[in-house]
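Fold it.
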Amino acid sequence: MWKAMVSIAVVLATASGARAQTITDPNEVASRLHFWVQETGDPVYYGEVRNVNPQNMQALGYYQCLAIAFIKYEGGVFYYAHKMWGKSSDGSCHYDDVTSRKVGNHGACVKDTDAGFGSAIGTARMTKNNIDYMHSTFRTVDTNTRRVGETAACVPPRGVGAGLFSIKIENGRFKLMSTRPLDYEVNIDAQDPEHPPTAPVF
C-alpha cells in the first residue's frame, strides 16, 4: 500500500513538473500540440489574447477571447485557424456559445461556412464540419522568418502580419507573443469543439 502511494506521488509530481517547465524549441513545442491533419477528431485550444506593454514586452490585461486549431507543422512553420471575439457583459468568453458569439478576427483565406468575409463577422464554431482544412490557406507562425499572420499565398505579394517575438509552452499554456504587440495564450489541454469549455480555461 505504501509503495503504491509513493508511486502515485511520483507520477503526480512528474506530471506537475512537466506542466511547469518552459519549452521554447519550436519542434518540442509542436510535439506537445495536436494537429488536425494528424487527428481523427478536431482538437481546439481555448484562451485569450492580451495586450502587451511595448516598452518591456510584458503581457497586460484582456484584449479578446480566443480559439485556435493547429492544422499542421512543417519545417518550423505552424499552420493554424483561429477566431477572436469579445467577452460578454458578464465578463465571460462563453466558449460554449459558438453560434451567437460574433467573431471579428479570423483567417481571410480559410474556407469556413461559419465565417463572414469582407466585414469579417462570423461565429465561434471551430470544427472540421465548417472549416475546410484540406483546401484552405491558413495563417502561419513561421519560426524561420520570425513572422506571424497571413502568407503571400493569401495576401500577395508579401502577406500581412507581424513579427514573432516569442513562442513557448509555459505553466500549462501555449504562449505566442507578436511584435504588434499582442500576447496569445491558450490552455495546453485541447478540447472537443463539440463540447467546448463552459468555464474559464485559466
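Residues 1-16 have pLDDT under 50 and may be disordered.
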